[in-house]
């Protein structure tokens, strides 16, 4: 690792790595560091991707590698949502073809390998801790690399640290949080045959999701709010999670028919926060935020990985311009696109959560619908759900 890079990308998720690749496509000779806090090869959540994923993959030159990597086509979804009959949503007539069920380990390894082949230095166990602004010279970043503090200087910083937006928040940039939910997710062995459709089911306390994975596992996830999480914990998280799954009308029986044992292993399902949130400013002098660091979505949208790549492609071009590449200006500034896409997402989410009216007294759905109504453009901010997060 050097002490100075032309660009430093904090966070080695899909957004950070797509930014690095896009940047290197335009500026092959510059020195780029990706500093990732986690370890290499860990299992990440986020396996359902829309057919359009092929577009940014094509822009990054990764289509052939992606197609050879054994990700599974996903024909659509089967859901119990807003009614007692199973609804189907499929991609039969989508010109881009089916959606995708990703093998995240292979997908992430593909992005890391492509970045390294392009000459990017990717360092794991390297967490951003602090920043010093050096007027006219850029930023000095303090990184914790495998327990040792290292200082790295650069003129271009990319915050790709996910919804926590560690760098932007260290600069004091606020984040608008429109809703926070919690997922309790488990990866379970899949001994039998299960559809490749995404399974979705609303329940009074939230919703369940199950998706077959390419490596003979299934990911099963319950999504609820803080009150639902508290109730679950009061009754013992693991037994309540299993009871909740057994009580579902669609997902539990489908998993049982495929021989999935929700009691396999004693480990509690992993708890993962889910934010619908937008950074107040997604760029500034010598820095920009990309992917979930800029705007994070509820996984009901299944857009997070796709959005990370699309945003990374655009962010890479912006950084390349900052590094002197002679690229034409973008038709619309990326900041405007991030804000517009977030507004669209809020409308779609409001529509989806508004469809579920079977439990008018259920606090989870009442609260989602109230917040969704307030997130609509032009809604009054009285009693607004929005929480502003600063460091
Ligand atoms: C429960 C759940 C289920 C989801 N399911 C789906 C799905 O099925 N499909 C889908 O498309 N999306 C899904 N998403 C969303 C998707 O995971 C994200 O939108 C996507 O990962 C965003 O990519 P990113 O690179 O912006 O952020 P991330 O993937 O979060 O990557 C950020 C990276 O930054 C690193 N980092 C954090 N802090 C630091 C630091 N201080 N220094 C250095 N590195 C740091 C982290 O270790 C991480 O690797 C889901 C999200 C959740 C929470």
Automatic annotation (TrEMBL):
Domain FAD-binding as annotated: residue spans: 5-318
Cross-referenced InterPro entries: FAD-bd, FAD/NAD-bd_sf, Flavin-dep_Halogenase_NPB
Membrane-traversing stretches: none
GO molecular-function terms, A-Z: FAD binding
Pfam family, one: FAD_binding_3
Top-rank taxon, per record: Bacteria
PANTHER family: FAD-BINDING PROTEIN (PTHR43747), SLR1998 PROTEIN (PTHR43747:SF1)
Protein name: Flavin-dependent dehydrogenase
Upper taxonomic lineage: Bacteria, Pseudomonadati, Pseudomonadota, Alphaproteobacteria, Rhodospirillales
């Amino acid at each position: 690792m050097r002490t100075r890079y032309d660009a430093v990308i904090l966070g080695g998720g899909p957004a950070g790595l797509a930014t690095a690749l896009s940047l290197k496509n335009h500026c092959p000779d510059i020195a780029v560091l990706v500093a990732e806090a986690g370890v290499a090869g860990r299992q990440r959540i986020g396996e359902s991707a829309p057919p359009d994923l092929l577009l940014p993959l094509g822009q990054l030159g990764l289509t052939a590698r992606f197609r050879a990597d054994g990700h599974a086509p996903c024909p659509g979804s089967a859901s119990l949502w807003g009614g007692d009959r199973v609804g189907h949503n499929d991609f039969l007539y989508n010109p881009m073809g089916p959606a995708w069920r990703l093998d995240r380990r292979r997908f992430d390894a593909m992005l890391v390998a492509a970045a390294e082949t392009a000459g990017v230095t990717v360092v794991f166990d390297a967490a951003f801790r602090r920043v010093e602004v050096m007027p006219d010279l850029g930023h000095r970043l303090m990184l914790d690399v495998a327990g040792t503090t290292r200082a790295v200087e650069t003129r271009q910083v990319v915050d790709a640290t996910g919804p926590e937006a560690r760098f932007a928040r260290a600069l004091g940039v606020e984040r608008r949080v429109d809703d926070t939910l919690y997922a309790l997710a488990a990866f379970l062995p899949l001994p039998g045959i299960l559809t490749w459709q995404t399974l979705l089911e609303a329940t009074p306390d939230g919703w369940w999701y199950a998706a077959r994975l390419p490596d003979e596992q299934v990911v099963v996830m319950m999504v609820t709010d803080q009150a639902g999480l508290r109730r679950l914990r009061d009754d013992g998280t693991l037994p309540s999670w299993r009871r909740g799954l057994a009580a579902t009308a669609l997902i539990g029986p489908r998993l049982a028919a495929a021989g999935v044992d929700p009691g396999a292993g004693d480990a509690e399902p992993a708890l993962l926060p889910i934010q619908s949130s937008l950074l107040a400013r997604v760029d500034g002098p010598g820095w920009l935020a990309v992917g979930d660091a800029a705007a994070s979505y509820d996984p009901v949208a299944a857009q997070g990985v796709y959005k990370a790549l699309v945003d990374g492609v655009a962010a890479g071009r912006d950084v390349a311009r900052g590094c002197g590449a002679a690229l034409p200006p973008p038709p619309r500034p990326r900041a405007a696109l991030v804000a517009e896409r977030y507004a669209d997402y809020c409308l779609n989410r409001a529509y989806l959560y508004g469809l579920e009216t079977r439990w008018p007294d259920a606090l989870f759905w009442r609260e989602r619908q109230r917040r969704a109504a307030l997130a609509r453009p032009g809604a009054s901010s009285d009693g607004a759900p929005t929480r502003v997060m600063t460091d």
